[in-house]
């Protein structure tokens, strides 16, 4: 049973938003595009594994995706967490192409692609850290100490995987082997301790409650100044930021395209780039409108929460609009 769906990572949405609102010749464009490609590849790899999880019996397996938990002032993040009454399975998903050599001596993975080599941190080290921290978290929260097992799943079925170390061959698998590995775990833990349904639900609820999504400013991360971001409402037809509000509608000065609610996409961008808190003055500045009454009307139509009075009022935007 899938209790926490896999969502598009917020970092992807933020990178897409900032790329849309920076000048095309901005010095950070290439870096942003490269990072976006990496995050999209990782997400696509994670999604591809979901296909192989669909065959698991709903009543026996509780599946949580993208879990991020704080313990001892440190966060640990798990791509996919599978809970059963007998054990917990952590899946660390890697989407790498080319030839991947796992080096146990130097604790690294070396990718060879198009004649070039690139080193990555040992995924088993990351997996062991996740297992340890989850075990500590269960103990700290006085939850049943179910056995925890971890696997690294190489989602790219065309990648060539090589290693002579047993620690890698036992823990690193292809997606086509996932069902077989889970069956082996079922047999291995079959005679072990089994928690009751209510205890498993308790563990699941506590994990969901402890989940803490990463909140980080994309502009600060890449050293982009607020005033470098292009303001205005974008035209869906010609993609210019040239919409003006006239007679209750947005109209493009270039192609005459009109829309009643084009400002919603712009405010989604605002949330991703600057956060959910916004004042009337900030909304007018970002949408490039010169009308406090129109700003008030937009806030009212969006039915957003507000704090403070008059000029000190701060609104909390909903994402997505």
From TrEMBL:
Q: Domain NERD: where?
A: 41-157
The organism's superkingdom is given as Bacteria
InterPro entries per record: NERD
Pfam family for this entry, one: NERD
Protein's UniProt name: Nuclease-related domain-containing protein
């Amino acid at each position: 049973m899938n209790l926490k769906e896999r969502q598009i990572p917020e970092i992807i949405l933020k990178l897409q938003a900032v790329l849309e609102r920076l000048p095309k010749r901005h010095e950070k464009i290439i870096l942003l595009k490269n990072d976006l490609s990496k995050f999209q590849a990782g997400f696509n790899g994670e999604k591809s594994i979901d296909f192989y999880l669909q065959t698991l019996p709903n009543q026996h397996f509780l599946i949580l995706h993208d879990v991020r938990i704080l313990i001892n002032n440190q966060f640990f993040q798990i791509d996919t967490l599978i809970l059963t009454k007998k054990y917990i399975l952590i899946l660390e998903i890697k989407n790498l192409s080319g030839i991947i050599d796992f080096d146990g001596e130097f604790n690294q993975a070396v990718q060879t692609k198009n004649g070039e080599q690139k080193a990555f941190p040992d995924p088993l080290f990351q997996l062991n850290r996740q297992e340890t921290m989850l075990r500590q978290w269960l103990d700290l929260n006085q939850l049943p100490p179910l056995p925890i097992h971890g696997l690294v799943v190489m989602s790219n079925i065309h990648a060539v995987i090589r290693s002579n170390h047993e620690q890698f061959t036992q823990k690193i698998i292809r997606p086509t082997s996932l069902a077989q590995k889970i069956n082996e775990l079922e047999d291995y833990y079959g005679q072990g301790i089994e928690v009751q349904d209510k205890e498993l639900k308790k563990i699941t609820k506590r994990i969901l409650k402890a989940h803490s999504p990463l909140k980080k400013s994309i502009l600060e991360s890449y050293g982009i100044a607020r005033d470098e971001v292009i303001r205005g409402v974008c035209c869906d037809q010609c993609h210019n930021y040239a919409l003006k509000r006239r007679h209750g509608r947005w109209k493009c000065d270039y192609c005459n395209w009109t829309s009643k609610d084009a400002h919603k996409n712009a405010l989604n961008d605002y949330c991703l780039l600057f956060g959910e808190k916004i004042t009337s003055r900030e909304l007018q500045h970002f949408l490039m409108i010169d009308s406090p009454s129109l700003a008030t009307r937009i806030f009212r139509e969006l039915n957003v929460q507000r704090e403070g009075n008059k000029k000190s009022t701060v609104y909390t935007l909903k994402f997505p609009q």
